[in-house]
Write a structure and sequence with these properties.
By secondary structure, this protein is α+β, with helices and mostly antiparallel strands. Helices cover 46% and strands 18% of the residues. α10 (252-260) packs parallel to α12 (281-307).
């Protein structure tokens, strides 16, 4: 079946699902061709690679978000997004159910189910605006909001509800396997910016700190923390897209957002706010390794942007600068100097 025919079939099934649930679409946020609209102030753009139909809907009383999984219907099994970042729809649904109403920064669960081949989830619509891509947001706003979220997420890690969740664990074995996979899949583009000596050093560090990675795998982690997953409404902040929630070390979410804010010198405020989690030698060593681990994907991403034939992307003008910053960050991480200014 061609992709075009599959898309037509999916659109028909989505319309049938919405009708059966008495839901009226207010605005489509992500369409059945896998494009999601990200808003940041007066500007707007499309990001690709998403495998959901996402829309703001209403039943006449409550504004909701409906998220419909499309992976099995639209995405080929060899799709690169599937091999690199497998989303877990079922985990997100269970997470919302378990935490609904306990924490203000987590969307409130409404319902979920199946309709034909479609799996769907609805949760309360979060009022406000999405911060958007990191290079198009105001640094002060982003950093202020994220710094305030640090203690909230830490509290969630220690809550009895979180401790009872059966979630994936990103321990030393996971990091070792993922590093191998990243270098196998993205080795060529990464090799254009990092020498074999550098990648070998990252591999050695991965083995050296395996015991620490296991010991620190006790933090509930969002798993995809970036500005587009943060919604602001006055003093209220909501984190969306918890499909990658898992147990990890203290550095994962911090490093994720810190790397995305590569073009803001003020990003170190985030590290400063997390300094009590980075007080020991072991915790700092893990931070530096997670930076090295995650930055490999960032380098591969920006290389793809730089060499793409699509020059209309909102990211194109940033590629060279981003790559330069990331290469410098790798050097500092290998020298264990990224935290020198944190007191």
């Amino acid at each position: 079946m061609s992709r075009y025919i599959r898309i037509k079939k999916v659109r028909s099934e989505i319309e049938s699902l919405l009708k059966s649930k008495g839901l009226k679409v207010i605005e489509v946020l992500c369409d059945s061709e896998g494009k999601v609209l990200v808003k940041y102030g007066p500007q707007a753009g499309y990001e690709t690679g998403h495998h959901y139909f996402l829309a703001e809907v209403t039943d006449g009383v409550t504004r909701q978000v409906i998220k419909i999984k499309l992976d099995n219907l639209l995405v080929d099994t060899n799709d690169i997004f599937r091999s690199i970042m497998e989303k877990d729809f079922g985990t997100e649904q269970k997470f919302y159910q378990s935490t609904s109403g306990l924490f203000e920064f987590i969307p409130k669960y409404i319902s979920h189910g199946k309709h034909g081949e479609l799996r769907w989830l609805t949760y309360k619509y979060a009022e406000g605006s999405v911060l958007g891509a990191s290079h198009l947001t105001e640094a002060g706003t982003v950093l202020h909001r994220l710094a305030g979220l640090t203690p909230a997420i830490r509290e969630l890690s220690t809550h009895h509800v979180a401790k009872g969740m059966e979630l994936r664990r990103h321990d030393a074995k996971f990091y070792h396997a993922q590093l191998h996979a990243i270098l196998k899949v993205q080795g060529d583009p990464i090799g254009k910016y990092l020498s074999t000596e550098i990648t070998d050093s990252i591999k050695r560090l991965n083995k050296k700190i395996s015991h620490q990675m296991d010991a620190y795998c006790r933090y509930l982690t969002h798993g995809d923390l970036h500005p587009a997953n943060i919604i602001i409404d006055g003093d209220d902040t909501t984190l969306i897209d918890w499909e990658n929630v898992h147990w990890d070390n203290h550095a994962y979410d911090l490093v994720s957002i810190w790397l995305r804010l590569w073009n803001f010198p003020q990003r170190d405020l985030l590290i400063h706010e997390s300094r009590h989690d980075l007080a020991s030698k072991e915790s700092r060593q893990i931070f530096h390794y997670v930076v090295l681990h995650k930055i490999l994907d960032e380098i591969a991403f920006w290389h793809g942007v730089k060499t793409s034939n699509d020059k209309s992307s909102i990211y194109t003008n940033y590629a060279d600068r981003a790559l330069k910053v990331h290469v410098h960050t790798v050097e500092a991480a290998l020298n264990n100097s990224l935290l020198d200014s944190v007191s």
